[in-house]
UniProtKB/TrEMBL annotation:
Annotated TM spans: none
Residues of the FH2 domain: 57-135
GO cellular component, one term: cytosol
Name of this chain's protein: FH2 domain-containing protein
Signal peptide: none
Disordered: annotated span: 1-53
Family matches, as SUPFAM superfamilies: Formin homology 2 domain (FH2 domain)
Top-rank taxon, per record: Eukaryota
MF annotations from Gene Ontology: actin filament binding
Amino acid sequence: TSSASSCSSNTVPAPPPPPPIASPPPPPPPPASKSLTPPAPPPPVGMMPAPDGAMTIKRKVQTKYKLPSLNWIALKPNQVRGTLFNELDDDKLYKVIDFAEFEEMFKLPGSGGLLLTNGTHEVDGLTSQPSKRFK
C-alpha cells in the first residue's frame, strides 16, 4: 500500500477550466423622440435614385417580330463609368426612335415578312433565299 500512496502524491492537479466568454453588451437604445409616430419608411426601390456610379437594371423590351441576336459581352459598372452608356436615358430614346419602323427594317425572315409565290421572303424590297444546305 505504500507504493499506492507515493503515486498519488506525485500527480499534478488539473488546471481550472477557462473563464466563460462574456457576450458583448447590447446596443444602446435609440434616442427618445418627441413624437410617438415611427419614422417614415424609405421610398420603394424603383423610386430611389441610384448611388453615384451605380448602374440601374434596364427593362427588357418586347418586340413584335423576331429580331437578329447580337453577340456581346456585358460590361461591368466600373467599365462604363465616364462613357455615353452611363449617361443614356432609355425613356428619352423610346420617345425619339420609331421602334415599329426599326423592327420592320431588321425583323428576321419568317417572322411576318411577305411570302412570295416562289417560296422566298421579301422584307422591305430585299429578297432572302432559303438555305440550300437544308433542302
